[in-house]
Amino acid sequence: MADPWQNAMDHAVAVARKAGEVVCDALRGDRAVMTKSSVVDLVTQTDQKVEQLIIQSVKEKFPTHRFIGEESVAAGEPCVLSDSPTWIIDPIDGTTNFVHAFPFVAISIGFAINKQVEFGVVFSCVEDKMFTARRGKGAFCNGEPLQVSRQEAVEQAMVATEFGSDRDADVVDKIFQSLRNILCLPVHGVRGAGSAAINMCLVASGCVEAYYEIGIHVWDVAAASLIVSEAGGVLMDVDGGDVDLMSRRIIAANSKTITERLVKAIVPFSLPRDDATPPKKS
Ligand SMILES: O=P([O-])([O-])O[C@@H]1[C@@H](O)[C@H](O)[C@@H](O)[C@H](O)[C@@H]1O
Ligand SMILES: [Mg+2]
Ligand SMILES: [Mg+2]
């Protein structure tokens, strides 16, 4: 049976590549920086321009589809995942990297229907790596199949995480407690690309055994969540429960074994859900 969403996925790849050209061009120019939820939660006109480019391009082909876009939500649009076909967009995942010309920035486009991600596209544009996954059909980087690492000994694992943009001392303490516990398992090392989506694609590529973070948003991880699972990986909440893309918490790993060791080491805390935050628009 023909795949009803293949043409939508092909469009996502094409518009991600076009958006990547805009981002890479902007990396060579000036980048006016603004802030959102904190003085270190950065956004630029390029984030906003790229998100509008993607949304307008999709609307022309799929006028009835819905959107969850990072910068649209920041501007007051609701963050609601219904059963309708919904595009979940992070126009630049790694904005702080982008501002500093630190070369790990990605355009992330997830597509969900009936609240299930059907395809994911993450374009790491400086690296020119197009990560894709279609539910049930595998995960790829530039067309090459992806497979998670087969390492199941956490003491020989590489783990990725990020420190986020919350500088509340109590939150930072919890983040560092988890980091300390994980380092002392021990693990071979901890890394962070500065982009949740790229970290998760590194899990899918077998370069790191796991990524975890508390503080991410649905747009950071929707596309890459399918790339990880289609590469043979496992997704879980940091407390060992089922992953919930709106919960702002995630572990993406190569195996249940590694995931369960991380659950024991992570100090869990809760944040307001993405779909619980009331839209700012009156
Ligand atoms: O804001 P953005 O660059 O799209 O996304 C970023 C995430 O990829 C990262 O994991 C998180 O730690 C940052 O705080 C930020 O949210
Ligand atoms: Mg992001
Ligand atoms: Mg972003």
UniProtKB/TrEMBL annotation:
> What pathway, per the record?
Polyol metabolism; myo-inositol biosynthesis; myo-inositol from D-glucose 6-phosphate: step 2/2
Q: Print the keywords alphabetically.
A: Cytoplasm, Hydrolase, Lithium, Magnesium, Metal-binding
Q: Where is it localised?
A: Cytoplasm
Q: Where does Mg(2+) 1 bind?
A: E70, I92
- Report the cofactors: Mg(2+)
The answer on whether this UniProt entry bears the keyword Secreted reads: no
Q: Pfam families under this entry?
A: Inositol_P
- Give the reaction(s) catalysed: glycerol 2-phosphate + H2O = glycerol + phosphate; a myo-inositol phosphate + H2O = myo-inositol + phosphate; adenosine 2'-phosphate + H2O = adenosine + phosphate; 1D-myo-inositol 3-phosphate + H2O = myo-inositol + phosphate
- Top EC class of this enzyme: hydrolase
Q: Which residues bind Mg(2+) 2?
A: D90, D93, D220
| Superkingdom of the organism of origin | Eukaryota
Q: What Enzyme Commission number(s) does the record list for this chain? A: 3.1.3.25
- Provide the primary localization: cytoplasm
- Name its GO BP terms in alphabetical order: inositol biosynthetic process; phosphatidylinositol phosphate biosynthetic process; signal transduction
Cytoplasm among the record's keywords? yes
Query: What's any one GO cellular component for it?
Result: cytoplasm
Q: Which GO terms describe its molecular function?
A: fructose-1-phosphatase activity; glucose-1-phosphatase activity; glucose-6-phosphatase activity; glycerol-2-phosphatase activity; inositol monophosphate 1-phosphatase activity; inositol monophosphate 3-phosphatase activity; inositol monophosphate 4-phosphatase activity; metal ion binding
Similarity-based family: Belongs to the inositol monophosphatase superfamily.
Q: What is known about its subunit structure?
A: Homodimer.
Official protein name in the record: Inositol-1-monophosphatase
